[in-house]
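Input record, target 12 of the design panel.
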């Protein structure tokens, strides 16, 4: 109704409204004016379609409340805390590894104050940012040298570019992997300027395949840990030790993209055998790359360890400048590595702690969560049933793709409301809650709930159900 448009107050009138005046105390004027304008524009489109007459007071009221929402959502940032009820410990969509407390403290100090990122305090001269984690990494992995870049994708790119630009790189067809988020070995190879030379077949590759492919153009033997899938059955891949032996004979470096990169023996966590970084270095790999935010439990980073001559060549590569890490990453990574060296990773690194939880502890946690949810359900207009169940958790982050980690959780069956409706509302909470679905039931795994989150989650579910009950009542009128 066009008449409604005449009832829209002007921007100046709106700005003199006390409700909007109050915003001017918290936000700068031009920002508020811009959002008021946007709100009015959107309102105009709506009012044109509206059949009923709407008063000026109603319109002002709507603009004020809409403005509240818009200002709040624009100024709280789009990155939101999430409660992970999925039981996937390293969830790339949920930011991978939550950091250790010591990492956060260190990060806070280095972020708040100035620091010696590139200053040699002994000499009072310019230093290198790369010295900071290098000693720690050498000590932990027994490699000769180390370098940290933006992420593992960057580490692989840098390694290939430094060691094999314009040369052939021999890779098994069974290892031409794609990692989530469009990281494909053949594409990265192309970008690096190295030439991919595929050998063997998808399911079987022998050392003789590598040997026959070597010629005067060969620059590197490359292996990728097929971390996010498993070929089962009639398969063969070449052992790292054999590849190293061949590399030595032919005077070619061997580079390994390890993916997740354990510093901690996975057998101690009750997980299946996976090569640790130390073992790969010991087996003689010349360069090993892995992520900082997968099973290491640190910040996003690409860690490269290996022979000094190769690492030094990478440091001199101009690409390193473009792929370099900042002080915050270095701080968080140093603190994480110190937990491995001197601390208690199974106690202080959230990822390792989650993976090392005992069956009994998980069961107890699930029972506590079930109790809290049950005691809430008695005051709820919308009912639900709770059952403690055994669940299959996952390591995630591309490691142990087929391994079901035995866990515990609660199953919620809602009686008067659709599961998807509750799940969608829970995602809109702050913190948002992400759950799993099992047929017509909601599944919340307790392994990935951090301290205090069981209580918070119970409150969120209570609030969502109260809101949905209000909506249903409204519908009946
Ligand atoms: C995860 C992974 C990558 C990519 O690592 P980012 O740190 O995410 O860049 C590369 N290779 C393998 C084998 C991986 O598992």
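The sequence produced for target 12 reads:
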């Amino acid at each position: 109704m066009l008449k409604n448009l005449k009832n829209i107050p002007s921007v100046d009138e709106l700005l003199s409204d006390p409700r909007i005046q109050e915003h001017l105390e918290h936000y700068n004027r031009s920002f508020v004016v811009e959002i008021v304008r946007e709100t009015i524009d959107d309102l105009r489109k709506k009012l044109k379609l509206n059949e009923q007459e709407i008063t000026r007071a109603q319109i002002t009221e709507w603009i004020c409340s809409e403005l509240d929402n818009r200002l709040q959502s624009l100024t709280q940032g789009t990155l939101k805390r999430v409660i992970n009820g999925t039981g996937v410990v390293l969830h790339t969509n949920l930011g991978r590894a939550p950091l250790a407390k010591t990492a956060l403290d260190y990060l806070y100090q280095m972020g708040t104050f100035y620091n010696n990122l590139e200053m040699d305090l002994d000499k009072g001269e310019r230093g290198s940012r790369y010295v900071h984690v290098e000693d720690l990494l050498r000590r932990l992995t027994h490699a000769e040298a180390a370098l940290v870049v933006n992420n593992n994708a960057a580490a692989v790119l840098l390694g290939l570019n430094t060691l094999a630009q314009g040369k052939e790189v021999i890779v098994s067809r069974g290892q031409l992997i794609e990692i989530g988020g469009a990281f494909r070995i053949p594409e990265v190879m192309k970008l690096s300027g190295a030439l991919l030379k595929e050998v063997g077949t998808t399911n079987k590759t022998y050392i003789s395949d590598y040997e026959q492919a070597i010629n005067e153009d060969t620059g590197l033997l490359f292996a990728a840990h097929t971390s996010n899938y498993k070929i089962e059955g009639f398969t063969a891949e070449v052992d790292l030790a054999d590849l190293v032996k061949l590399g030595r004979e032919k005077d070619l470096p061997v580079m390994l993209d390890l993916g997740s990169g354990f510093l901690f023996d996975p057998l101690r966590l009750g997980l299946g055998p996976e090569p640790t970084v130390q073992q790969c270095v010991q087996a003689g790999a010349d360069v090993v790359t892995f992520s900082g935010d997968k099973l290491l439990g640190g910040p996003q980073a690409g860690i490269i360890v290996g022979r000094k001559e190769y690492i030094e060549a990478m440091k001199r590569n101009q690409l390193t400048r473009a792929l370099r890490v900042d002080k915050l990453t270095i701080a968080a990574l140093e603190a994480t590595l110190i937990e491995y060296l001197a601390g208690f990773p199974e106690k202080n690194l959230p990822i390792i702690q989650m993976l090392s939880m005992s069956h009994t502890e998980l069961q107890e946690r699930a029972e506590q969560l079930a109790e809290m949810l049950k005691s809430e359900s008695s005051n709820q207009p919308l009912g639900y049933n709770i059952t403690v169940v055994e669940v299959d958790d996952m390591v995630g982050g591309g490691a142990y793709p087929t391994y079901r980690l035995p866990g515990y959780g609660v199953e919620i069956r809602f009686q008067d409301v659709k599961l998807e409706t509750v799940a969608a509302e829970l995602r809109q909470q702050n913190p948002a809650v992400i759950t799993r679905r099992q047929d017509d039931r909601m599944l919340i795994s307790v392994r990935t709930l951090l301290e205090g989150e069981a209580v918070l989650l119970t409150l969120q579910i209570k609030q969502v159900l109260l809101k949905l009950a209000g909506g249903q009542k409204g519908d009946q009128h």
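Residues 151-153, 179, 183, 224-225, 227, 257, 259-260, 291, 302, 398 surround pyridoxal-5'-phosphate (CB under 6 Å).
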